[in-house]
Amino acid sequence: MEYMLDKDVERVLFSEEELRERVAQIAAQIDADYAGKEPLLVSVLRGSFVFMADLVRQIHVPCTVDFMAVSSYGKGASSSGQVKIIKDLSEQIEGKDLIVVEDILDSGNTLSYLLQLLQARKPASVRLCTLLDKPSRRVKEVEVNYSGFSIPDYFVVGYGLDYAEKYRNLPYIGVLKPSIYGG
Length: 183
Ligand code: PRP
Known about the structure:
Layout: E1 9-14, H1 16-33, E2 40-45, H2 49-58, E3 64-72, E4 83-87, E5 97-105, H3 109-119, E6 125-133, E7 146-150, E8 156-157, E9 173-176, H4 178-181
Parallel strand pairs: 2-3, 2-5, 5-6, 6-7
Antiparallel strand pairs: 1-9, 3-4, 8-9
The structure holds 1-O-pyrophosphono-5-O-phosphono-alpha-D-ribofuranose.
1-O-pyrophosphono-5-O-phosphono-alpha-D-ribofuranose (PRP) binds next to strand 2, strand 3, strand 5 and helix 3.
């Protein structure tokens, strides 16, 4: 660790090396599942941008990318269930094979809403790929097709994940010190 924000991190949960290995494994699974196809990877901003960038470079089948930004109303450390589209996709998705790429699946509120919205646009298929999953936090059931790591309810930052918009640039995933978020 050698970043100024390292001091706020209690411990490293997944190192750069561990993340690289797991991302490569997920990409290999996607390559196998989408042989002969051309998936469209949809990154849900902002948290997923780092995972998306690493994942897409490990995928060897032809693929395209698009981005969506959503936000939950009244969001503190967890999401409330209401979702607002801040930025919609740039492309039509009808008939396409979508892979929605997320950094973390928590209550499932964001994703269940988003997946419904995307399904209504009649893609050929939609699968969900999340780097982190906190199953203990689930409120809405969401089918996960590719999952990097299942974790307990830790407050995690880094590798795209933020606390108050900071820490996204840390190259590892760490557990934030409770003193930082007042836990
Ligand atoms: C995170 C994450 C998901 C959502 C998951 O985004 O990227 O979109 O929360 O939570 P849920 O399962 O409880 O709905 P966040 O709202 O923190 O925005 P960000 O990606 O811009 O950091």
